[in-house]
Amino acid sequence: MPLVESRSTAGRDELDVIHTPATRLVHEAAENFSTLSLAFSIVELARSAVMLGTVFRNWGPVSGSVQQQFLDGYQTVQALTDEELHWWPVLVLWYSLALVPRGDDPNGWGRAAAEVLDGHTAS
pTM for the full model? Predict the structure, then answer.
């Protein structure tokens, strides 16, 4: 099945994309190009863990245990190296701190960042 069909309309040729699951995926990736990253996977993983559930929690943080479950689930598919795992708490703290607003912190990002720091210094 061709991915592109040609047709003639009003004297000019136009190309129509035939939407298959693969072309939809490419189309969605192109729409989300602003979020494309060339970072190490542990960086994206930590950012995703910190942002996990924010849309569903009024932009508030998830617990450290949820973040750990996210990491554990990822590792069932793709194991991380010891070096990558050493960066995990640092990156989770970094992204947590980046979300602490100036002034009032109604969603608790400051508390969440402090919990990450406390958990890292305790281990």
Answer: 0.65
16: which 2 tokens?
């129509």
Residue 21's domain comprises 4-34
pLDDT tens for the 123 residues of the chain, in order: 444 444 555 554 444 445 555 555 555 555 555 555 566 789 999 999 999 877 776 788 999 999 999 999 999 999 999 999 999 999 999 999 999 999 999 999 999 999 988 876 665
The CA distance from 46 to 36, in Å, is: 15
Do both 14 and 50 map to the same domain? Answer: no
- In single-letter form, the type of residue at position 49 comes to A
Are the beta carbons of 67 and 51 closer than 8 angstroms? no
Same domain? For 99 and 70 the reply is: yes
Dihedral angle computed from the Cα positions of residues 25, 28, 29 and 31, in that order, rounded to the nearest 10 degrees:
160
Number of folded domains in the chain? 2
Judgement on whether residues 80 and 23 belong to the same structural domain of the protein: no
Phi and psi for 16 in degrees, rounded to 5?
Answer: -115, 130
